[in-house]
Each structure stands twice: as C-alpha cells, then as structure tokens.
Amino acid sequence: MQIDLSKIKSPSDIKEMSIDQLELLSGELRAALIKKLAVHGGHVGPNLGVVEATVALHYVFNAPTDEIVFDVSHQSYVHKMLTGRIGAFIDPARYDEVTGYTSPDESKYDLFEVGHTSTSISLATGLAKARDLQGGKQNVIAFIGDASLGGGMALEALNYAPCLGSNFILVLNDNQMSIAENHGELYAHLKELRDTDGQSPNNIFKALGYEYLYVAEGNDLRHLIKAFEEVKDTDKAVVVHLNTMKGKGLPVAEANKEAFHYSGPFNAETGAPEYQGGESYLDIFANTMLSLIEENDKVVLLTAGTPGAMGFDKPRRERAGKQFIDVGIAEQDGVTMTAGMAKGGLRPVMGVVSTFLQRAYDQLSHDIAVNNLPSVIVDFYCGVYGMNDVTHLGLFDVAMVSNIPNIKMFSATNAEEYEAMIRMGVAQTESPVVVRTPGGRLLHSDRKVDTDFYRYEILREGKDFAIIGEGAMLQNALQAADILKEKGVEVTVINPRIISEVDKEALDRLRDYKRVVTIDDGIVDGGFGQKVAAYLGDKGPKVTCLGLQKEFMDKYDAKSVLRDNGMLPEQIAALIHE
Amino acid sequence: MQIDLSKIKSPSDIKEMSIDQLELLSGELRAALIKKLAVHGGHVGPNLGVVEATVALHYVFNAPTDEIVFDVSHQSYVHKMLTGRIGAFIDPARYDEVTGYTSPDESKYDLFEVGHTSTSISLATGLAKARDLQGGKQNVIAFIGDASLGGGMALEALNYAPCLGSNFILVLNDNQMSIAENHGELYAHLKELRDTDGQSPNNIFKALGYEYLYVAEGNDLRHLIKAFEEVKDTDKAVVVHLNTMKGKGLPVAEANKEAFHYSGPFNAETGAPEYQGGESYLDIFANTMLSLIEENDKVVLLTAGTPGAMGFDKPRRERAGKQFIDVGIAEQDGVTMTAGMAKGGLRPVMGVVSTFLQRAYDQLSHDIAVNNLPSVIVDFYCGVYGMNDVTHLGLFDVAMVSNIPNIKMFSATNAEEYEAMIRMGVAQTESPVVVRTPGGRLLHSDRKVDTDFYRYEILREGKDFAIIGEGAMLQNALQAADILKEKGVEVTVINPRIISEVDKEALDRLRDYKRVVTIDDGIVDGGFGQKVAAYLGDKGPKVTCLGLQKEFMDKYDAKSVLRDNGMLPEQIAALIHE
Questions:
Q1: What is the pLDDT of residues B5-19, one digit of tens each?
Q2: Which residues contact B251 (CB under 8 A, 6 or more apart)?
Q3: C-alpha–C-alpha distance, residues B391 and A526, integer Å
Q4: Distance, C-alpha B316 to centroid of its chain
Q5: What is the pLDDT of residue B386?
C-alpha cells in the first residue's frame, strides 16, 4: 500500500483515510521532506518534528473554516504539503514555488505572513474576538512551540486569551529545544510537566485559567487525533501540550538539533553540509568577541536565542563561559539586561539579527538610550544583501535605530573597520553604540583603519561631485567613481562610518559642489541620506538620495533591486555625468 | 512622640528606629504625601499603597549598596523622601525639585530613569550579572507591581532571572489593580494566591523556579520587615508577594482607585479635582469612537491598560460593551491582536499614548504592516505640547512609525479634521492607518474638512516661499505668514496631513520657489521634513527643516524649546525675510 502524494490537493483528501493510511501518509511526507531539504535546505528539525501533529490537525479540524495560526511559521511545511502545495515538495523543479513561511499570497489556508516568533497567540485572539462578535462557530488554533512561548508577547497573550471566554485552542509543540538550547525557567517547568505526564499540581497553564491536556506521544497519530478530537469545538481556552521530537526520522537531525534547526543543503546520511562557506563577517564578529572576552573579564556577550546567527558556536560559547549569556528568544529582556549590565560596570555587547532588533525598540530607547548607558549592539544581516524574506528584511534598522537620541550608529565597510568599530564601542564609555555589520561578501582593507569613526572618511578627493556610500554601498560609490574617472570626471568619495548624525565639517567642505549623491544600504526614508539632504538643503549643492523604496519585498534579487532604484555603479555615474 | 521629617537625610536615619517609631514615621510620610499630592498632583494611589513597604525596604536593606530597581518608578515617592529629598515633599516651595520618577541625576539611590512599565526585572538581572561577575555580595531587588508584571518584557525576565542562580529578590506589590482594572489571567492567579494565603499548590512563581513568600498584610511594617529580613542575602531567586492597598490612608483614593492612580490637584476630603479642564482632543476621540461603535458593530476599540489616557471613561466603556477591549499593559499583544481582528473582518482601532507605542514597533511592522491589515492606531500626547517627562516624550513617534512601509500616517490640526481622519481610517480598507492627535489646546475649524488626506492642503497661496507645518506646528506656520504679510510678503502655507510620504504633485508646484520651510512637531531626524528635503534636494528651492533636536529633554518648557530650535512664528518669519 502506498499513498500517491501528488493526489493530495487539500485537507479533504485525508479526511477519509484510516489511521493506518494516515501513518503511511506521514511516513511519505517525512521522506519527501528529507529529500527536498537535503537538496534545498530549510528548517529541518522543526518540520520533521511536527509531521504527525500537522496531519492530525488537518484530519480533525476543518481549515480554512477552522483557523490555524502557525507561530514563526517556519514549521508550516507539512501544512503546505496538505493544502494544495505538494508539488513544491515532491517535484525538484518546483521546490522554489513556496516560501519558507505561511503566506496569504500563496494560499487561503495561510492566514498571515509570519516570520518572527511569539505572535500566534495574539493573532489568534484577534481572530477569536472577530469570530465571537460576528457569531461564528469555528475553532481558532494557535500552534506555538520551538521556544517561541518564552517571548514576551506570547506571554502577554497567554495571559489574555482565556479572558475571551470562548473557544481558543493553544497547541504547544514542546520539542525541548529553542534554536539553540532552551533558556529560561519556563522550559524547566515544561520538563516538570513532561516528567509527571502532565500531572504536576503546579501548572502554569492551569494557573492562567486554561484547561490542559498532555500528549506524551506527540509523534503518534492516534494520541494526537484523540487529543484534538477531545478539544474540538470547546467553548473554553485549552492548552494541548505535545511532547514531540525535533528532527524526528532523520538520525543526524535528531542527534544534532541545533545544527539542523535550519540548514543549507546537506548529506542526508552524514549530515555534512554540501557547501562550506568561506570566512564571513560573522567569523570576524565571533573572533573579535572571543578576543575581547579573553582580554577583559568585564566584557559580556549576550544573545537572544540565536548564537549561531552570530557565528558564536558551541566551542566559543564554552570558552566564553560566564561571559556569554543566552536569554532565549526574548529580545526585550536581552536589550534591557544589557542596560543593567552596563550600569553595573560591565562592558556588554549584544549581537542581534537586524530584523529581530525591531522587537526591542522601546528597550533601546527607554532603557539604553534615555539612560545613555555605554553598551554595544551589533546588528547582523543588514541591507540589501541581508535576508530577503519579507518578514526578515534588514532594510529598516537605520531608520529605526539612528533616529533615537544618544545612540551612535556606525556602519562598517570591511573586516578591519568592522573589528575596529566593535573594539571602539567596547572601549568607549560615552554612549550606547550600534554597529551595523556590512552586507555582501567579506572585504579586507589593506590600509590602516582610521578609527575616528565620528567623522566621515574621505577616500577620494574630487570636485563638483561627491558620492557618500554607506556600508556595502560604498563599493557602488567607488565603482561609480572609477567609471567617471575614465570619463575624466574626478569625484569625491566618502565613507560616512557614522550614520546617526552628519559630519557637518565634512559636509561644509561640499558647500560649493554641484551635486552630492548619498547611497543608503536600506530604505531612503529615515536614513542617513535624508539627514545629509536636510543639512545641505539650504546650502549649495543639489542632493540626490539613493536607496531603497519604503516597501516590503519578498524573495527579491539584490541586483534587480539595486537597478530598480538606480543604485548600480553605472547608474550612479550616469546620474552625475548627465 | 513625633518624627521630624526634615531630619530624614538618608536611610541610615531610620535604621535605629523602633518599629513603633517606624510606624509613626510611615504615618507622617503618608500625611505629607497626601498634603503635597492634593496641591501638586501626581501618582496618588500607587505611592500611598507602598509607604510601609518602602520604609521596610530601606530599614532592612542597605541602599545604595543594595540595589533597588523600581518598576515604572511612579511609586518611588516614599523612596525619594527617605533618600535625601524630603524637602521636596514637605516644603511647598520645593515641590517641583523632584521628578515623578527615579532619576540618577537626582540621587545615587536612583539607578535608572524609568517611566515605562515592566523593565525592572531585566534591569535588575543585568545588575545581578554584573555583581556576580565582579564578586559583589549586595542584594539586588526589583520592585514591581501595579499591573506591570503582565507586560511581556517582565514575563520574559521573570522567566530568565532564576537562571542566574544567585541572589535576586523580586518584590511584587500586588494591589489588585492596574491603572484601570487588571486584565489578564495572571491577576486571577494572584487572587488565587491571596485567597489561599499563598498556599495554593498552583503557583506560577514556583513553577518558574522561585522561592516564594507571601505577605498578606502588605501595609503592616512588622510583617514586611520580617519577610524582607528572611530573604535578605539569599543566594536564590525569591518572590516576596505583598498584598497592599492602593490609595491606602486616603479614603477617596481607596474608594476610587482608577481616578486616583494619577490625579491633578484635588480636594483631599471630597476627591473633587481642583480644576476642570475644558473640552480636549481626548473628548473628541472618545466621542468619535463611541459614535463609530454605535454605528457599526464591527468597530472595536482596544487599549493596552490606559483607557483613561484616551478619555474613554467607565460609562463609555459600559456603553461600548464587547466592542471595547482592555488587554492590560501589554502593548505588543494589543497591536497584534488588532492585526488579528482586522484579518477576522472587524474594524479595529487601538488608542495608545505616543511614548507607549514604542513598545510595539515590531508588532506594527511585522504583524500589521507586512500583512497590510486595515486598522487604525490613534496616537496621543504627541509633539512638543505632549508629555514632558524624559521617559514619556511624544517627539519620536513620527520617526518611528512613518518609516515603516505600508503604514499611512496622518497628522491632524484641529478637532474636525481629527474626527474626519479617524473616520476615514475606519472606513477605508486599503492600509494600516496611524492618526496623530494634535498637541496643544483644542482648535476648531470653521471650514468644511477637505477629506482627501493623502494630499497636502494648501491653506494660503503665496509665491517664492512656502511653509509646511505639521500638526500643532501649522499654527506657527500660519502666524509666521501673518507676520510676513504685514511686511508685504505673501507666503504659501501648507497643512501636509499625510506625513508618511510626500505629496509630489504639491511639492512639484514649489519647484521654482526660493525657499521651503518645513516644521516637524517632533524631532527633525526621520521626520516628514527630511522627506521633503530629500524630494526637493535636486530641484529648485532651498529647504530648511525646522523641528526639535534629536535629544532627550526632561521637564522642558515648550515655548523655550520652540525658541531654541527657531520654531517660533517670528523666528520663522525672520528666516524667510532674512
């Protein structure tokens, strides 16, 4: 007996299956997933862990009438396979047809674009409130887990959802893991619940007013279906706590949960990655931090659940010892704990992916900046060469951070400058400092780093025209200057370095220029270029602000985007030579 | 026997007192507080509730060696009285010498500027980590309560703090209240703990790894001192749960906890406010929302714990019924629940104080804006006439919100326009909309509102010079134009209305002007003026961007600030007539 996966067009195609058939189906879905992921890469462990839970969900509930909200939504691959998108998982030519997250543009079964953690309960309470006011009867289900329950927003909503007093089903996928280890006592409590088969009298969910159901065999269809049938159409708030295995069915992923949370293409037998990247800015960061930690016992490196995203692997974490902290996926706590450490006399550095820094705006402003606490935030995956999922763009950090008073924001353009900026940030005690990691491939400088980062650096002296390119866009500025030079036009090229304020002295030297072109590696709005335009607005030169449109793009091609926004070197040269 | 309060210079002055003396002291502190607050206004209920707890804290612990972090810090008045600032509470001439929050500029006993909720546990874990790495032995105490425990960041940190494995004392001031009622099941759980005298087997703090101590008589010095002595110098994470009475000792405040959370000057006998304000923009908002709710059963108004700050009083809340939601002080949950409600087909409006909207940047961006969900956020206490505590400034919202893609941000200039903008936001289904409430006194318009808010409104047609004034700054533009008119110079005056993008057509009509002046009612950086400067940068006119410096000011005088930044009408006129 075999299931023809290509025939699975919608959840209705599995409703008539026997449990035995569903088990067969689950096995085939898992095999197809492993085959695709080994070639294509993706979130391996999270999806392998929830094959059965997703099959059971769609078997018991009636999506899209019943509304399922996937937290983070990086574990929605099986959901996609069951909701009309199987082709993108069984036909290698079509692997790129789906994104790695839920997307309403792809399917009516996907309710939201989601890529950040801890949002599902709030989104689902909104849906439940809409249902209740409009007299609906559908089930509303938030599917959370893989450490996103520890995020503050999830906890806020966990606290509020039972107040609705109506159907609300929280499926907690407890795979005992975060991206790295789980951090926070909540996870110790979940272990207590697992160890007592859900019977511990101490139960945070019951304390918060939920009915509670524990499924010890969270990869067993029979148990899952029984539990979901039990809670279907409830008129209360219920938690269904599933004990699942991350990476289930792929031995290398079961054994190595952190590495296989997300992986590029890999050998399914050995787990070895298919490609080995060269040295990256993350290596520069990780090595710099390890040196700083070993040089100075007051230096502490903090991450909010993503040490791997900053290259700080397990051996480095072990060497850093108590000078390394992982607070779990809790960016707010991480940033404000950084403020507390600075006040207490430490020299804290927090590493954070650009898009996730968004989750701690108020902590940056109210805790670090108002208190002007010397601390360093290093921001990864920035700019046009950063992540390109619509929920993970690195295009907005300058607009967000650089307009907060007291914070000095710096943008690096090569490895040596990057290291020097981090070291400067740690050494100084005047201000909070944010360092933007360059996008694009690693560049080295053969010149001594000029460490007066509060001033613009003039790389070439020309006349009449100047190009100021921030971060990775400095290369575009330099290449445009090369093109112009061939045409006999010598232009000034500036690496601004500091992007939270303008270097007035440097700009005053451009007063009699004809045109100044700024290039933001991110959106123009709220960026450094607009500061330059405002400063020069009542002086001589015309100013043209290049950078990206203020829009959310998905799965974009960097070169096309640069071209669409007139940011390619030849376009910049033409603008000046027009 | 009497205590001479003026002799209390530091906590050491109370260390030798007997319990009877401390009780006498508490009574006198409370009487002085009531006397000052009735004349001066301030956070009445929160401070009256913690007189004894604060005395006991300073009696048992040794600040500033022992480090006390006050959450929100609006309940730190008694702490200020005991730490060298008694004069500001007993001498009416000196009432203004202290701010309403902790402030390191005022005293070494104050560790942080704090005004937003839910930060204390994270700050204190940072201090504890700094202590542990540097071999210190002091106690670290986070003093939280008055509903701030339900904020996501507090919950993140609550989850993490026991991981430190060292001394960490969390004093939970449970006064059974938020600013309005408490919302969220956590508060039902606290009631369960109170009702069982702390003995319930279900205990969220124990679940998270804390030792736990319950003090039923949280306004009784003997019980408080005993509890604090018991936990002093602990090497674990401990929660001391105090059952206190908000407003204790002032009958009108005990009876009317919401009104006396914060109050202007009042009659201490009757509780009647000394001044009755006239109609305000909050009335316009509240009345508009009540009308919309009564007109359309899909309209829902949501607040994150501050219904009073948007004029939505109890009678209005009762009339709104299920179409009003208070999620408690949980802005992240509130914004993302708004996204969920919009997806579910409702027409949600969230009202939020400008400075607190900062707490939900990612929710605005990732949940509302990426998903482009039609919903309305109305932003209060904005601009130079907004709140003027350093932690509550309304000067940064435009830079924060208007640079997020998809969000349309509008700034109103009078009551009729404001109401029309809110109604437009609710009626349209294209975009998320943020409406900025005007600062300053209520203005009415005698003209019909032009509701094409996506376009600039030309109020006066002149030539060569244009002034574009946003929000309350439109008045400065109009008054500058009056001054110039007297000198024979007719200038164009524009009310931009939309501030998240420029009206290119309107600006193109200014191509041949000599100078365009923009006035942001907030900081220049990241504001609408810089967008105008960037757009006109390679066209004809010089552009001058007026607005506030990017800095944190405290207790500022609006007129002085406007003068310092060249924003007064006569200064603007002089700039143009120079």
A1: 999 999 999 999 999
A2: none
A3: 22
A4: 22
A5: 95
The answer to whether A122 contacts B332, with C-beta atoms less than 8 Å apart, is yes
Residues 6+ apart with CB under 8 A from A488: none
- Tell me which amino acid residue B522 is: G
Give the distance from residue A280's alpha carbon to the nearest chain B alpha carbon, in angstroms. Answer: 28
H helix or E strand, kind and range, residue B436 = strand B432-436
Fold of A5-255: Rossmann fold (3.40.50)
Q: What residue spans in chain A does CATH classification 3.40.50.920 cover?
A: 457-577
Looking at the DSSP bridge assignments, the partners of residue A241 are A172, A214
Greatest mean pLDDT range, A258-272, B148-162, B264-278, B560-574: B560-574
Where residue B223 falls among pLDDT bands split at 50, 70, 90? very high
Chain B residue nearest residue A545, CA to CA:
B534
Cβ-based contacts of A304 with chain B (< 8 Å) = none
Quick one: CA dihedral B494, B498, B499, B503, positive or negative? negative
Which residues, 6+ apart, have CB-to-CB distance to B480 below 8 Å?
B467, B491, B569, B570, B572, B573, B576
- A457-577 sits in which CATH class? alpha beta
Q: Which of A530, A490, A538 shows the shortest CA–CA distance to A511?
A: A538
Can you give the three-state secondary structure of B244-261, one letter per residue? CCCCCCCHHHHHCCCCCC
pLDDT of residue A40: 95
- Residue A436 has a pLDDT of 98
Output the pLDDT for position A182. 58
pTM of the model: 0.96
Highest CATH level, class, for B457-576: alpha beta
CATH code of the region B281-436: 3.40.50.970
Q: Is B53 exposed, middle or buried (0-12, 13-18, 19+ CB in 10 A)?
A: buried
Token pair for A217: 């065999």
Q: What pLDDT does A68 receive?
A: 98
Measure the CA dihedral B64/B67/B72/B78, to 10°: -40
**CA of A230 vs chain B CAs: smallest distance (Å):** 24
Q: How far apart are the C-alpha atoms of B248 and B254, rounded to whole Å?
A: 6
